[in-house]
Design goal:
Elements lengths: L16 H13 L12 H13 L3 E5 L2 H11 L7 E5 L4 H9 L3 E5 L9 H9 L4 E5 L9 H10 L2 E5 L7 E2 L2 E2 L6 E5 L12 E5 L2 H11 L4 E2 L3 E2 L15 H31 L2 H4 L15 E5 L3 H13 L4 E2 L10 H5 L13 H9 E5 L6 H17 L3
Parallel strand pairs: 2-3, 2-4, 4-5, 5-8
Antiparallel strand pairs: 1-9, 6-7, 8-9, 10-11, 12-14, 13-14
Helix pairs in contact: 1-8, 2-8, 3-4, 3-7, 5-6, 8-13
Bound molecules: pyridoxal-5'-phosphate (PLP).
Pyridoxal-5'-phosphate binds next to α3 and α4.
């Protein structure tokens, strides 16, 4: 099988000697554990880099995006049986993180502007809830300002699952910085990567302290961990190590350049395709906020989306669905009686449609002119056939 032209990978494709040297330094220093000395570690420095880049006061590196979600939920004080309203159009981890804390994920229907259907959301808030998790998409930061207004009106917390969306903005503001806490993933397919990893960002010292202790086995630490001091709790081990952060510091230093290249590539494609015929179907247009990571097309049916995926495959181009069903339609969720019907709430009909009809063409920063020409040609072919 020939290699696909546009794999769903970004920072991972840009790894070079800089990351190798950074990892080498950590190994030569013989201190991979972030708290191995009382000194400032590479992971501390990475957290400072994140604070500088995203204009937040606190950042905590952890070992995955899923861990970041669990730690963020713990930080806001989620208890067993709490209702947590989450986007129905997301990766399973958003729901399983809630379940891991004994809480109940309530799926909220999807919306293309706000990420969550505001009517469905407010209906469910009125039944009582502890928090909302809004999920930004790869290539799209939603305008969650109306959700922040609901948070203020009802006194609940908002966590942004920006696991896929590092660097995306809405009207100039970074995803992950609107709510009480934002979480990001550094798994291989994310904008920047160290294979596995995550980070939590917040402007709340209180949430940061709980998050830091919880992710460090519940201890309060100077150099040695203590479970006797005030603030200690029963925690878990979700720590990031210095090899992960060494890679991530270099990756983060490349993110602006990568995004510049991605946007240029997207502009190149837009100049070559019959843009007027599809511009209404593109949900992440080129604007100051776009990172150029992909083109998200909303097709008019599952069948049309299937045709696009198949024809692309024949040209060694990947067109894919972000998720092929709302998370609650996976059998594991049905087994746990966590579908809208089980939870006695409105159906998430738009999420079910979107999961079928929304497709993504990844635009990794390594694309060459020939690749851009092939992708443009395919898109024009799909437009002419009426599939796009
Ligand atoms: C929306 C969303 N949330 C959470 C996660 C979990 O992140 P990780 O794989 O780093 O645990 C992912 C990863 O794909 C994701 O896409």
């Amino acid at each position: 099988m020939e290699e696909i032209i546009n794999p769903n990978e970004y920072g991972g494709l840009m790894i070079d000697n800089q990351e190798v040297e950074a990892v080498k330094q950590v190994i030569l220093n013989e201190k991979i554990f972030r708290y191995a000395t009382g000194e400032e570690s590479c992971t501390d420095l990475f957290e400072k880099d994140i604070c500088d880049k995203f204009g937040v006061q606190y950042a905590l590196g952890v070992n995955s995006g899923t861990s970041a979600l669990k730690v963020a939920l713990k930080a806001i004080g989620v208890q067993p049986k709490d209702r947590i309203l989450i986007s129905s159009y997301t990766f399973l981890a958003t729901a399983t993180a809630v379940i891991a804390l004994g809480a109940i994920p309530i799926p909220i229907d999807f919306d293309l502007n706000y990420g969550l259907n505001l009517k469905d959301l407010e209906n469910e808030i009125k039944k009582g809830c502890k928090a909302i998790i809004v999920v930004h998409l790869q290539g799209k930061c939603f305008d969650i300002r109306p959700i922040i207004k609901l948070k203020e009106k009802y006194g609940i917390s908002v966590i942004e699952d920006a696991c896929q969306a590092m660097g995306t903005k809405n009207k100039g503001k970074f995803s992950g910085t609107f709510g009480d806490l934002g979480v990001f993933s550094f798994q291989q397919n994310k904008p920047i990567t160290c294979g596995e990893g995550g980070v939590i960002v917040t402007n709340s010292k209180e949430y940061y302290n709980i998050a830091r202790n919880y992710a460090d086995m519940g201890s309060v630490r100077d150099y040695y961990p203590s479970w006797d001091k005030e603030g200690a709790l029963i925690g878990d081990n979700y720590r990031m190590n210095n090899i992960q952060s060494a890679i991530l510091r270099v990756q983060l230093s490349k993110i602006n350049k990568m995004q510049e290249v991605q946007i240029k590539n997207k502009e190149y494609i837009f100049k070559r395709i019959k843009i007027d015929e599809v511009k209404e179907k593109i949900i992440n247009k080129i604007s100051d906020d776009d990172t150029g990571i992909n083109i998200l097309f909303l097709t008019s049916s599952k069948e049309k989306a299937d045709i696009c995926i198949k024809e692309a495959k024949d040209c060694n181009i990947e067109i894919r669905r972000l998720w092929n069903k709302p998370y609650y339609l996976h059998q594991v969720m049905k087994n746990e009686k966590l579908t809208p019907q089980d939870l006695n709430k409105d159906a998430c009909t738009f999420a079910e449609t979107i999961a079928n009809n929304l497709i993504s063409i990844s635009l990794p920063p390594t694309l060459k002119n020939d690749d851009l020409e092939s992708i443009s040609k395919l898109i024009n072919q799909l437009i002419e056939e009426g599939s796009l």
